[in-house]
Amino acid sequence: MNKTVFDQLYRIVEEQLSAARKLDGEALNQLTQERSSIQDQITLTGIIGLSPEDRSYAHDVLLKIKVLDNRIRTCAQLVLDSLSNVMPVTAPLVYNARGYLRGH
Residue 103 and residue 92: Cα distance in Å, rounded? Predict the structure, then answer.
């Protein structure tokens, strides 16, 4: 394993953010599968076997990925918040067995 694996992982995370911003669920799903595959590869080969220079590079890339992951989460939260404002979850108003109203 070398730097190109981490570069590829970083590129995929950047594309995930782009897909999240475009609300492209299909692309986001495919990119998530690709990312999972690469992460499995990294897990199997391990970072310990890397040279100190490559390990430092991997650490830097993984820090950048954390930042992008936070942006993806923020984007997803904005979408969920927007949807909850547009289409609030409501239950029909009904009376329960005790005669009290239930629902929104």
Answer: 5
CATH number 1.10.3210 is the correct assignment for the domain at 3-102: no
CA distance 36 to 28: 12
More confidently predicted of 46 and 20: 20
pLDDT class of 12 with cuts at 50, 70, 90: very high
The secondary structure element, H or E, covering residue 64 is: helix 52-86
- The 3-state DSSP class for residue 102 equals strand
**Two structure tokens written together for 41:** 């590869």
Q: ∠ CA(62), CA(67), CA(71), 5° rounding?
A: 140
Ramachandran category for residue 91: left, alpha or beta (phi over 0 → left; psi -120 to 50 → alpha): beta
How confident is the model at residue 104, as a pLDDT? 59
Domain boundaries, the chain: 3-102
